[in-house]
Amino acid sequence: MSDAVLTIENLAIALPKGADRPLAVAGVNLELHAGKVTCLIGESGSGKSLVARAILGLLPAPHVRVADGRILFEGADLARAKPAEMRAIRGARIAMIFQEPMTALNPLHTIGRQIDEVLRIHTSLPRAQRLARVVELLESVNLPEPARMLRSFPHQLSGGQRQRAMIAMALALKPRLLIADEPTTALDVTTQAQILQLIRDLQREHGTAVLFITHDFGVVADIADSVAVLQKGDLVEQGSAAQVLGRPVHAYTQALIAAVPKLAAPAAQPPSTAPFILQARDVEKTYGARGLFGGNATKALNRVCIELRRGETLGLVGESGSGKSTLARAVTRLMTVNDGEILISGRDIARMTRSQLRPMRKRVQMVFQDPYGSLDPRQRVVDIIAEGPIIHGTDPQAARKEACELLALVGLDPSAAQRFAHEFSGGQRQRIGIARALALRPELLVADEPVSALDVSVQAQVLALLADIKTRLQLSMLFVTHDLRVALQVCDRIAVMQKGEVVEVAPTSAIYGNPQHPYTKALFAAVPGAHWQDRLTQETMAS
After folding, report:
1. Are the C-beta atoms of 489 and 458 separated by less than 8 Å?
2. Burial of 453 (0-12, 13-18, 19+ CB in 10 A)
3. How deeply is 531 buried, as exposed, middle or buried, from its count of CB atoms within 10 A (0-12, 13-18, 19+)?
């Protein structure tokens, strides 16, 4: 008797007229087995997320719909199931961890209420038992202070904390099939390791089948039993993880693996003597109430000091909630700080008025972590990119022409200029965000996880693009990332943050070859699939 939990037969998903191809996926055949993880990989726009959404009946019909094939689960064809049948299955028998937690979570409800809703709809547990289960779930995904977290709203959590809350919601009823759409994209390496272990434990205890969509080959090497590769909607290769990663047959799979940055430091470089573009001195930022009714205060930044020279890239790494994004927003004056100085070319922006800041905005631009929430859904892409230059005096026609050129630079067809942000995949939206940041030709680019949503081939292209622009314009970058492979590849120096403090700063080659702080050592030890490329190469040569 087959242990297949879900079988996909000749699945075809139709796209609306005017799309780049008539079918998002065509003739896909896939089996998901109990207690096994199948990783679905491929470039942005290859159809990975649409396959996942088709399983749960979440395609944006009628424009995007299942055109052919069957999706068999527990004797039923989900492709033709009625809405009431799908509502009974979602959350209880099949759960999904969505790629972008900020848009998947309701901003008006607390985290606890949203997790409780799953239990309230699908179980008969009394309220007290549901509350205890919610706290247990928050603890299981290693969220700090679960009692406080369940009373928090999504905007009060960091990106990684929101993702963990979504994972807790998906695991609430121990589903038979778990669909994970880039579940570790926003997570630091230590939390990634914890979440991957959590998913493995669920498999072993309950025989859960997992469809794991990811572009992180380190995660694939760590967790996958089998791998399926999608290219523009076609399933070009599938097999065991060892076979696909170690002995890929298709040229597309080979190209994806070749684009993965290795966990290795660059050669040591002489220290830069260029003038400082950024100096942060004893910066402090505190969140929380200290007023009449009391309340707990959280020190997000605690006397942080960093320096960045012209033409240099400084990486900020650390766990979710360590203060990386807070520091990035302070540097761009998207938030004020409680104390300290933030000098841009010697001028302290921490105390500037709005009118004084206006000319400084052009010199410092930011690529945001969330490509969904940072793009105006009401504007066409060309207007999103051209808006900054137009505000600063560029002729609108010239600004829109340059916007189209920037789209080509970041790997998008200039015809995309007339479309809206919601018509693009997550990776494509991130590229639009990068184009918008570059439109003003800034001196300092603050990149908050700029490639976290991109597949490895596009990631390599964007990193090469940033390196090229950095060289040509003598651009300086503050590069926030949880991907230590990327940090080693693009950064001249790395600053490690833990609980609002910078615990170690060193040149990239030194911090990888000889980390001094125990926390830095722990981060490198937790990298998923560390040295998997070297290991698989040795295994292939031995066979």
Report:
1. no
2. buried
3. middle
- Report the C-alpha dihedral over residues 305, 310, 311, 314, rounded to 10 degrees: 0
Report, in this order, helix, strand and coil percent for the chain, each rounded to 5.
40, 25, 35
Residue located via tokens 């402090």: 284
Q: Is 421 exposed, middle or buried (0-12, 13-18, 19+ CB in 10 A)?
A: buried
Closest by CA position to 38, among listed 195, 174, 214: 214
Domains of the chain, residue spans:
34-58+83-258
Helix (H, G, I), strand (E, B) or coil at 234: strand
DSSP E strand stretches across 81-176: 94-97
Residue 179 reports pLDDT greater than 90? yes
| Per-residue model confidence (pLDDT) at position 532 | 66
> How far is residue 350 CA from its own chain's centroid?
29
- Mean per-residue pLDDT for 192-220? 82
Tokens 């600004």 -> residue: 399
Contacts with 369 (C-beta within 8 Å, 6 or more apart), sequence order? 159, 186, 325, 448, 449, 452, 480
Residue 298: pLDDT over 70: yes
Is the entire prediction scored with pTM above 0.85?
Answer: no
Whole-number Å distance between alpha carbons of 541 and 543? 5
Q: Is the pLDDT of residue 390 over 90?
A: yes
pLDDT over threshold 60, residue 534: no
CA atoms within 13 A on the CB side of 212: 33
Specify whether the CB–CB gap between 149 and 135 falls below 8 A.
no
pLDDT per position as a tens digit, 419-457? 998 888 767 888 898 889 889 888 899 998 887 767 777
Say which residue the tokens 């060892």 belong to. Answer: 242
Looking up tokens 């189209």 gives 404
Q: Residue 297 carries which DSSP code? A: -
In this structure, what DSSP letter does residue 212 have? E
The whole-angstrom separation of Cα 425 and Cα 421 is 9
Put residue 417 in one of left, alpha, beta given phi > 0 → left and psi -120 to 50 → alpha.
Answer: alpha
What average pLDDT is seen over the chain?
86
Query: CATH classification of 34-58+83-258, choosing from 3.40.50.300, 3.20.20.70, 3.40.50.720, 3.40.50.150?
Result: 3.40.50.300
Give how far Cα 394 sits from Cα of 375, 386, 390, Å: 21, 9, 5
Q: What is the pLDDT of residue 1?
A: 42
Share of the chain above pLDDT 90, in %: 43
